[in-house]
Amino acid sequence: MTDSTIVLSRANAVGPVRRRTFGSFVEHLGRCVYDGIYEPGHPTANEDGFRLDVVDLVKELGSTTVRYPGGNFVSGFRWEDSVGPRENRPVRRDLAWHSLETNQVGLDEFSRWLKLTDSELMLAVNLGTRGIESALDLLEYANHPSGTALSDQRVANGTPEPHNIRMWCLGNEMDGPWQTGYLTADDYGKLAARTAAAMKMADKDLELVACGSSGSGMPTFGEWERIVLEHAYDHVDFISAHAYYQERGGDLGSFLASSVDMQYFIDTVVATADHVGYKLKSTKKINISFDEWNIWYLDEHQASDEINDEWRVAPRQLEDVYSVADAVVLGNLLITLLKNSDRVASASLAQLVNVIAPIMTEPGGDAWRQTTFFPFSVTSRLARGTVLRPVIDAPTYSTAVHGEAAVVDAVATFDEEAGTGAVFLVNRDQTASRTVSIDVRDLGASRITEAVTLADDDVYAKNTIDDQTRVGLAPNTSATIEDGRLTVALPPVSWSAVAFG
Ligand code: AHR
Questions:
Q1: Which pLDDT score, from 0 to 100, does residue 1 have?
Q2: ∠ CA(456), CA(361), CA(353), 5° rounding?
Q3: 291 CB near ligand 1 (under 6 Å)
Q4: Which ligand 1 atom sits closest to the C-alpha of 172?
Q5: Which residue's alpha carbon is at the smallest distance from atom 4 of ligand 1?
Q6: Which parts of the chain have pLDDT scores under 50?
Q7: Which pLDDT score is estimated for 320?
Q8: Contact 472, 460 (CB under 8 A)
Q9: What is the pLDDT of residue 2?
């Protein structure tokens, strides 16, 4: 029985698909860098010590921009420690994750890794323990061609061409009491404004991200954005948003509807930013950089002893193993980011390898795909052209956390020139398959070119080191197009993509 309908039409265009929507995040945390992307002794390692099996998976994932080097880590980081001859680099304590940082990977090495993966760098500066001067120094080291003290240092360190980094984060989660050197909105707003203004004196075309809230549940949410932007509006281009979701207390229904919160988050930040813009009589719009989003079993992490009194190099921290349900929620969060492409101009899945990541590795051993890898990689590959906001008519269900939520959610993209498109869908129903009828007449679609689904009888099935391919994509053979109607059956708790031409 068809119980949900969707209408796709060019009239509901949101804006172009932005490649930066498919960004990710590499933090010096746990085994993300060391024993993750970098493992000099590994059989696949290149001359820089980067694992090429991981590079291949990152390319298959289709991540674009990579935020680096933190996260909480950046708020205690001295960037100078991580450039120059490796044997001279100091080992420091990282207070954020209570571990030791060897500084064997720094900006110059990481930039070479980015070239291997065809990614763009989004660099964060430390506004926790440091400030304007160190941000300007890093900018000079990274982007100035040559002929100055710091740019010549970069050249001498073996990187003759400037890194030409466009996007910069002005600190990280400065609203969070857990952040080294966290600030009030007023203090941070002033510091962000001054740092941004100074950085733009060096290069007016930089794209700068002010810290927004670390979550929609923060007590300062909304007010933080208002106050920060009242100070920094003229100098910055983006305000950040961070959101992590997890299933709590066995309430799968609420978890599956996590996107409702992400939509509320985006709507609130857009309204607040526009409110400040109108107040300042500015014609400029501040967009959102959703530069940390994912599923994270944070409660379990806080209850564990993975952070303890020891000072260790690359300890196993935040190594969540993801289920089918987690992948469905991740696919739905990506649908939500795409739907808001008019104002969410950049996003970073946090993180990329080993640390709450779609890719896992073992030292000296394999690299494999978590369940969450699949919706991300397929969406990044198929989303092309323009984002279309679908008109969805679907039954709803009640959730304890998010109120009424539709059982089906979706977004579509259409490439006018190629005459091809794709629709990405989730079924949040825990027991029933849902058959969706999609009106594609306006797009002239007449054939299905690909249809895949992620689902499993066990919604908690996972890919583990011992069973690395337990969960994967399966062809969805139910998808058909007839007379401008695309019909597809969505199993319970599933994510699907259907491409058409
Ligand atoms: O991604 C893990 C951590 O989550 C980041 O370091 C921090 O910014 C956030 O709280």
A1: 55
A2: 85
A3: no
A4: 8
A5: 71
A6: none
A7: 97
A8: no
A9: 63
Residue whose pair of structure tokens reads 């305000």 in the numeric block: 239
Query: Looking at residue 472, what is its pLDDT?
Result: 98
Q: Does ligand 1 come within 6 angstroms of the Cβ of 247?
A: no
Residue with tokens 């932007």: 229
Distance CA 237, CA 327 (A): 31
Q: Which atom of ligand 1 is nearest to the CA of 97?
A: 6
Q: Fold for domain 18-382? A: TIM Barrel (3.20.20)
Determine the pLDDT at residue 317.
96
Euclidean distance between CA atoms 81 and 104, whole angstroms:
9
Q: Judge if the beta carbon of residue 292 lies within 6 A of ligand 1.
A: yes
Taking the domain 4-9+388-500, which CATH number applies? 2.60.40.1180
pLDDT for 266 equals 98
pLDDT at 277 (0 to 100): 98
- CA 303 from chain centre, in angstroms, equals 25
Check pocket membership of 72 for ligand 1, CB cut-off 6 A. yes
Environment class of 306 (CB within 10 Å of its CB; exposed 0-12, middle 13-18, buried 19+): middle
Instruction: Evaluate: CB of 175 within 6 angstroms of ligand 1.
Output: no
Cβ–ligand 1 contact at 370 (below 6 Å): no
Residue of the CA atom closest to atom 9 of ligand 1: 71
Q: Taking each helix axis as running N to C, give the angle between helix 132-143 and helix 149-156, from 0 to 180 degrees, rounded to the nearest 10.
A: 50
| Contacts of range 225-228, beta carbons closer than 8 Å, 24 or more positions apart | 225/269, 225/272, 225/273, 225/276, 226/185, 226/272, 226/275, 226/276, 227/185, 227/186, 227/189, 228/185, 228/188, 228/189, 228/192
Q: What is the DSSP letter of 96?
A: T
C-alpha 233 to ligand 1 mean position (Å): 25
Ligand 1 atom closest to the Cα of residue 214 is: 10
Does an H or E element contain 335, and which?
Answer: helix 324-339
Nearest CA to ligand 1 atom 1: 350
Instruction: Tokens 């010549």: give the residue.
Output: 152
Among the atoms of ligand 1, which is closest to the Cα of residue 244?
4
CA 210 to ligand 1 center in whole angstroms? 16
Regarding the beta carbon of 70 and ligand 1, being less than 6 Å apart is answered: yes
pTM of the model: 0.98
Q: Residue 219 has which token pair? A: 């007590």
Ligand 1 center–CA 232 separation, angstroms: 23
Locate the domains of the chain by residue range: 4-9+388-500, 18-382
CA-closest candidate to residue 410, choices 478, 497, 481, 313: 497
Q: What is the pLDDT of residues 129-154, one digit of tens each?
A: 999 999 999 999 999 999 999 999 99
Q: Is 367 in the pocket of ligand 1 (CB under 6 A)?
A: no
